[in-house]
Write a structure and sequence with these properties.
By secondary structure, this protein is an alpha/beta fold. The chain has 2 domains: about 170 residues, D-Maltodextrin-Binding Protein, domain 2; about 130 residues, Bacterial extracellular solute-binding protein, family 7 (D-Maltodextrin-Binding Protein, domain 2). It has 13 helices and 11 strands.
Length: about 350
C-alpha cells in the first residue's frame, strides 16, 4: 500500500511539473526565427552612381521587406576585402553578397564578361532583359557562377560607356598609343584599336587622369559629376561601344541556399521590381553628369561616320577573342550573336 501511495505521489508530481512547463514550451515553439545578418560589399565608392542608384536603394528595399528575417549591411570598396579579391572572397564565403561587375572575375570565369556587355552588342535596356530572361542567359550565368559557389541574382543595367578622355577621339587611329582605364571586353576593345588598356581600383581613376597616368577612362557619364571627373576630363567621345553596361548583384551560393525559400523569392521579386526604376535613376544621373561637364567647359565629340567600319572590325575581333578562350565563352558569344541576329543586328 505504501509503495502504491508513493507511486501515486510521483505521478501527481510529474503531472504538475508537466503542466507548469507547458507555457514555457509554448513560448519556445512560438519564438520567431532569428534574423539572418548579411554583409554586402560594393565595388563602387560611396559617391559613385552604381552605389547611389543601385546599392543603397536595393539594400534599403530588401531590409524593409525582409525586416526580422534578413538584414543586409552595405560596405564600401576595401571595407571587407580589396576590390580585386571580391569574387574569390565571395566564393569562399568571407562575406555574403556583392554589388560588382563580371569584368572583375574574368580570370576564373571568362564567359561572364558577356553579361557585362560586348562592344557594339545589345543596344538598349529592353534587349538586355529579353536576352537574359527570354533567351536563357540568366540561367547560363547562374549555372556558370554556381561552379564557383556564387549565385548570380540579376544583372543591373546602367548607362552608356563612352570613352572620356583628354584627347579628341575623332578617328580610330586617334586612340593609338593612348592609355585608357577599361575593364572586361572594353580592355580588349581598346587594345584592338591600338590603345593600351589600364587597370586600377575604380577610386584611383580621378588622380590618374589628373596626373596624366592615363589619357582616358571608359565609365558612365554620371561619374563626371559625382566622382568629380569633369575637373580632369576634356572630352566625352561618342558613340559608346556598350550601351547599357550591366553590373551585377551576386551572393555566396551557400549563403543563398541557407535562406528560406520565401526570403529568396522576396529578394528576386524585389530586384525585378526595382530594376527599371534604378535604371531610370541612373540615366537621370548620367544626364546630370553631362550637363555639369558641359558647364565646366568639357566637349562632346562624335567620331567621323566614315570611321565606324574600323570600330566594328575592332569589336568583332574582341568577340572572336573572347569566344576562343574556352567552351563556355564560345557558348555565351554564340547565344548573344544568335539573339542579335534575331533582332536584325549582325556583327559580321
Amino acid at each position: 500500500m505504501r509503495e502504491r501511495k508513493s507511486l501515486t505521489l510521483v505521478c501527481i508530481a510529474c503531472l504538475v511539473l508537466g503542466l507548469a512547463a507547458l507555457p514555457f514550451l509554448g513560448a519556445c515553439a512560438a519564438k520567431p526565427q532569428q534574423q539572418i545578418e548579411w554583409r554586402m560589399q560594393s565595388m563602387y565608392p560611396a559617391g559613385d552612381t552604381s552605389t547611389i542608384a543601385h546599392g543603397v536603394p536595393l539594400v534599403n528595399a530588401l531590409n524593409e521587406k525582409l525586416a526580422g528575417k534578413l538584414h543586409i549591411t552595405l560596405y564600401m570598396p576595401g571595407d571587407i576585402v580589396p576590390e580585386d579579391q571580391m569574387f574569390d572572397a565571395l566564393s569562399k564565403g568571407v562575406y555574403d553578397a556583392a554589388l560588382t561587375s563580371a569584368t572583375w572575375s574574368t580570370g576564373v570565369m571568362p564567359a561572364g564578361v558577356v553579361a557585362f556587355g560586348m562592344p557594339l552588342g545589345w543596344q538598349n535596356y529592353d534587349q538586355v532583359f529579353e536576352f537574359f530572361n527570354k533567351y536563357g542567359f540568366l540561367k547560363f550565368m547562374r549555372d556558370l557562377s554556381a561552379e564557383h559557389n556564387v549565385y548570380y541574382v540579376a544583372p543591373l543595367p546602367e548607362g552608356a560607356l563612352p570613352i572620356q578622355s583628354n584627347f579628341a577621339f575623332q578617328k580610330a587611329d586617334d586612340i593609338k598609343g593612348k592609355k585608357i582605364w577599361a575593364k572586361g571586353s572594353n580592355e580588349a576593345y581598346i587594345k584592338a584599336l591600338g590603345g593600351t588598356p589600364v587597370s586600377m581600383p575604380f577610386s584611383e581613376i580621378y588622380m590618374a587622369l589628373k596626373l596624366g597616368t592615363i589619357d582616358g577612362a571608359m565609365t558612365t557619364t554620371s561619374d563626371l559629376e559625382f566622382m568629380g571627373r569633369k575637373e580632369v576630363t576634356k572630352y566625352v567621345n561618342w558613340p559608346s561601344p556598350i550601351n547599357p553596361l550591366c553590373i551585377e548583384f551576386i551572393t555566396n551560393l551557400d549563403a543563398w541556399k541557407a535562406l528560406p525559400a520565401d526570403v529568396q523569392k522576396t529578394i528576386e521579386d524585389t530586384v525585378a521590381e526595382l530594376q527599371p526604376l534604378m535604371y531610370q535613376n541612373y540615366l537621370f544621373n548620367d544626364e546630370i553628369g553631362l550637363k555639369k561637364f558641359r558647364e565646366y567647359g568639357g566637349q562632346e565629340i562624335t567620331i567621323d561616320p566614315s570611321e565606324l567600319p574600323k570600330l566594328r572590325a575592332a569589336a568583332l575581333q574582341v568577340w572572336n577573342e573572347i569566344a576562343a578562350q574556352d567552351a563556355k565563352s564560345a557558348e555565351a558569344i554564340k547565344m548573344l550573336k544568335d539573339y542579335l541576329t534575331a533582332k536584325g543586328i549582325t556583327m559580321e
